[in-house]
Amino acid sequence: MFVDEVEIEVQAGYGGNGAVGFRREKHVPRGGPDGGDGGKGGDVILEADPGLTTLVDFRYHREYRAERGGDGGGGRKQGKNGADVRLRVPVGTLATDMETDEVVADLVRPGQQAIVARGGRGGRGNAHFATSTNQAPRFAERGEPGEERDLRLELKLLADVGLVGLPNVGKSTLIASVSAARPKIADYPFTTLVPSLGVVRVEEGRSFVMADIPGLIKGAHLGAGLGHRFLRHIERTRLLIHLLDVSGLTGREPLRDFEVINQELAAYNPHLATLPQLVALNKADMPDAGEQIAHVKPALEERGYRVFVISALTRAGVPELIYAAADLLDHLPRPAPPAEEEVVRYTAPQTEEWEVERTGERQFVVRGRPVERLVAMTDLENDAAVRRMHRVLERMGVIGALRDAGAAEGDDVRIGEQEFSFID
After folding, report:
1. Helix/strand/coil (H, E, C) string of 332-389?
2. Second label for 105, Cα 20 to 30 Å away, from 154, 268, 289, 315?
3. What is the pLDDT of residues 226-279, one digit of tens each?
């Protein structure tokens, strides 16, 4: 089964909690705090596997969660880091955050990896909070929550040449005749329901990858027909071969077909309209093809297109077309290679800014990563930890900003998942 678009949920692991502990050792009075840190939560990582060709595995398993970090222990023992979750995807997979539409991973090289959800850092043990005025702190941090995302995974086939044309013009027959690909072939529209990839060997040490894209029809960019689902697969090609049926059996005008397909390409993505095109007039072995060829070939050549008369069935004219495509590819730039870094973080930089918003007569919300992280990593059942949190909020200016916004004693203040009463 070919599946080229799925939606999944990923949850990175929470960091482990820091420990509250005190050194107890013979002949060492007042040993002091020695609570260790929690371990880091596991990441969720996408990895491009050249052995995969579809996203079908994600169709039946949509939720992925990395392991939580281990808790710290006494004697400054650090908790173990949580295990990462590695999701293998085909080369050419694009991952997009469904909430923000941010591209978080674009895997175009075998073995390339991207961290799409970062594990939370472990909470610090009480050994970190000892000061000259508080030599025996009885609190530690909780682990930071891991990132959580809803992702849309899209597969964009990586091919040098894309075959485009209306349904049943012979694209499947052509790719079958020049490569080892064996798409379904029959004499009715929409035979090709999924894209096919074939490696075309031109000569020793010279080859390219060709993609047979399901037929397009008028309105495909708006969702008509089948081809609109697969237009993404020709976004990464460097060259298009545009097939036209000149058999005279369809009742259609080949030049009109040519215009329809180019309009659909441009409407879907203007970049596609700028790609070089070779035009192949297919089914030239049919009895009435000569009249069509005499009309279509010079008309397209006047527009600057290289036109080839072929029969994909008998392979007449096909070698000339393939050699012309290979020669043209030799002079077309390849897409820029990805960064040399193997593991890539596409997550947007986390800002340390925060803001206070009044949401009701006596209701306020404080938003911002540093404030929400502080609250999430505070043990709210520990009075000493809560007092420290209040002091940190005061130093950050959050308490003063709430006062300036009009907060009074007893007003509700929400920070992240928690709600507090304002105490001035």
Report:
1. CCCCCCCCCCCEEECCCCCCCCCEEEEEECCEEEEECHHHHHHHHCCCCCCHHHHHHH
2. 268
3. 444 556 667 778 899 999 999 888 788 999 989 988 888 888 778 888 889 999
